[in-house]
Here is the input.
Amino acid sequence: QVQLVESGGGLVQAGGSLRLSCAASGRTFSNYAMGWFRQAPGKEREFVAGISWSGGGTYYADSVKGRFTISRDNAKNTVYLQMNSLKPEDTAVYYCAAKWFKVGITADEYDYWGQGTQVTVSS
Here is the structure.
């Protein structure tokens, strides 16, 4: 089992920045690829960013490319999502997720999920 706890969400004005953190516990964190997903009211959960177990590979949705950066610190069992130039359409609950070894870009590929953290971007 892997337990995931997100933090860092909040209310920010358009153009602002937030950094989300996801702390993992349980099994060996460095064996898992990590992903960030988000879900807005009335919408499907969507992939935002993913990072390989080593941190050497990163992947982004087109909607966030150039604005968001995913990173991880395996010594701290933590994955981060730096979000810059935020837009109102980024408003959603953000979830981190873990899957064995290889990055995936669909929610059903991931085995473990956090409880989510709300990000609200005002215009």
Remarks:
- The chain is about 0% helix and 55% strand.
- The mean pLDDT is 96.
- The CA atoms of residues 15 and 26 lie 36 Å apart.
- The radius of gyration is 13 Å.
